[in-house]
Backbone:
């Protein structure tokens, strides 16, 4: 039996557009989302995050680990300010932070790894709270891909979604696109489909010369023309042919990869083609892993920043005619914060020593969950644990 | 009240000569060392650890984080083999691993950091045990130097050492040399004095063309001649003038720094001069921080790999005539494993959420202790915690 504990999930995705924070209350029998907040990514830190991921980058230890500390300091400061504005009852006792992914190599031989920056002790010291972090490494240590990790929360969510008796998918459109399919019998499948905002945002930044960072509502994509030869070349990416379980990241789909194959394109056409690529790879994944195998699918619920991109949603609906393509907002959840809530839930599981991966990550044995950094309030937390 | 828990401390020092493992049993009222083991450092991993620390090194993320995973795998394998050879009663429930330091920048502005490699989730997965790691970052987050961290265990130990009523020091000779002084009133002071085996080992490796890795018994040093002009030049190192609290590492005292100032020396003279430098910087530190301030000091107990270097011990005794310079073996402890035991104790403190630094590290507020990676046995551990 665990007594009531409030956990703030803190998500910074591969697209580095901002940090999403969602507080969720848990006890042994129930869970309930409480409040959400988001803050923009500081440009200077964002630039450094992208710089160390450049293909062929050669770095000093100082460049990497000062960034680790600086991301910790930024998150610690942001969370402290937010917490100070809350009532005592609203304040989270625990912070479950994903960290900023800068490398993800789950298939590397002989040893795999994944790297999320943002030093948790800095956040624990600044906020006075216990912090849980490093959720992906333990799954990789157990032979999993360390991703996707949201399916276990999507499964929890699906129980309250219309259509779950006929098969539903929760689809996250972040820097990378991934979905969780929940069969009517409750079994779970999850996969990363490929890039979403990583390429779309990079295309928008390029054509607006940095004035815009994302395609609001998908309007730019809608005003451009999809270049079919470029799309065809991009669809040869080897990730798309790999069998599941599989996961990917910015390192496998860097914007440079896109620009190199879309060299002839300019203006809105770049954005339209990146958007079409996102949609096409998503449709292929549903066909390959769900529909094509005769699995029932009545509705796809979009979440993540890209769920606000109407062009993605409409193009998906066109290509998947018998399936309702909805935003999770349509059933009362805030799309933007599903991932942050998911990490709050993974923080809760970590406290209990429960794994955060499963068949959808490819882990076939117990993978250690997130790492617990005891904060000033650890003795208090211990009293609530079983 | 905490129920009995057995923790294996795992120490890999800056000199990369091997891993020392020491198991200690704790409960609320007592502690008792149980067994020790050590294994050599794999040459391939050692070479990579040194390579990424080379001054001016430019690295890929892959070089750093594959090494992090490989050190984790080596430690996981080593610990699994050792644990399998133990009786059920002897097996530790928790592993408290220091990790391999590759950078330590506690004074960096605006953000400080320290880096210990060795992925703890890999060790937790392979051993099935809960792992505690990353002991230094929280102290740095609280404004401390993240070092030295052994004083708190030295204090525990001093209560059973002869002479403690007249002031004693426990002196660790690892890659870096550091001591803890415990005043008769129980107050504690700790400081890093400078390099020990980092330079001596490098000198031995150079003159033996890699055939020897350390100066057994200090015999090489004894057969060489100390070069006074080189010694004088080396004593100008700015670290020696810094006020306490202070700590240092291989990055501030790389072997290259030594060789550049001992250019004219060859053969045994290189080893003799590195050894004399270790001794001279130690004596200066005792004069500056202990004796010179009128603090009583009756005995220095040497521990760490360098305690087996008779030349260091005899030269120290010569230069500190009124103080007994002993090996901690002389009073029944195994010198080599004091640091590993200390990290077992810091693991115990981390479980309870107690800080691992203090005035001796310069931390003036609560610093989060080590990070807990829940292993398969976490639910069992939770039952023993208060």
Residues:
């Amino acid at each position: 039996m665990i007594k009531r504990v409030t956990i703030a999930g803190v998500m910074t995705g591969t697209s580095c557009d901002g940090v999403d924070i969602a507080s969720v209350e848990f006890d042994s029998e129930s869970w309930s989302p409480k409040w959400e907040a988001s803050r923009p990514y500081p440009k200077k830190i964002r630039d450094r995050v992208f710089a160390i991921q450049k293909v062929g980058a050669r770095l000093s230890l100082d460049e990497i680990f000062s960034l680790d500390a600086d991301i910790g300091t930024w998150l610690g400061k942001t969370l402290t300010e937010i917490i100070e504005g809350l009532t005592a009852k609203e304040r989270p006792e625990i912070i479950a932070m994903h960290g900023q992914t800068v490398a993800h190599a789950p298939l590397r031989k002989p040893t795999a790894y994944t790297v999320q920056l943002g030093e948790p002790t800095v956040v624990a010291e600044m906020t006075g709270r216990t912090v849980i972090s490093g959720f992906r490494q333990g799954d990789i240590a157990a032979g999993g891909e360390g991703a996707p990790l949201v399916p276990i929360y999507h499964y929890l969510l699906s129980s309250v979604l219309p259509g779950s008796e006929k098969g539903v998918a929760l689809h996250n459109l972040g820097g990378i696109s991934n979905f969780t399919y929940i069969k009517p019998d409750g079994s779970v499948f999850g996969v990363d489909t490929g890039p979403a905002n990583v390429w779309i945002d990079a295309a928008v930044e390029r054509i607006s010369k940095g004035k815009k960072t994302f395609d609001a509502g998908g309007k730019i994509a809608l005003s451009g023309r999809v270049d079919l030869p470029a799309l065809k070349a991009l669809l040869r990416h080897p990730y798309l042919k790999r069998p599941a379980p599989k996961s990917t990241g910015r390192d496998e789909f860097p914007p440079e990869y896109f620009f190199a194959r879309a060299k002839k394109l300019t203006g809105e056409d770049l954005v339209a083609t990146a958007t079409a690529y996102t949609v096409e790879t998503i449709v292929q994944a549903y066909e390959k892993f769900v529909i094509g195998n005769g699995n029932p699918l009545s509705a796809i619920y979009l979440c993540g920043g890209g769920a606000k991109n109407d062009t993605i949603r409409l193009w998906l609906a066109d290509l998947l005619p018998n399936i309702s393509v909805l935003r999770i907002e349509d059933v009362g959840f805030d799309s933007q914060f599903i991932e942050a809530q998911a990490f709050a839930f993974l923080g809760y599981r970590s406290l209990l020593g429960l794994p955060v991966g499963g068949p959808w990550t490819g882990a076939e044995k117990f993978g250690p969950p997130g790492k617990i950094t005891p904060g000033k309030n650890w003795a208090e937390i211990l009293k609530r644990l079983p």
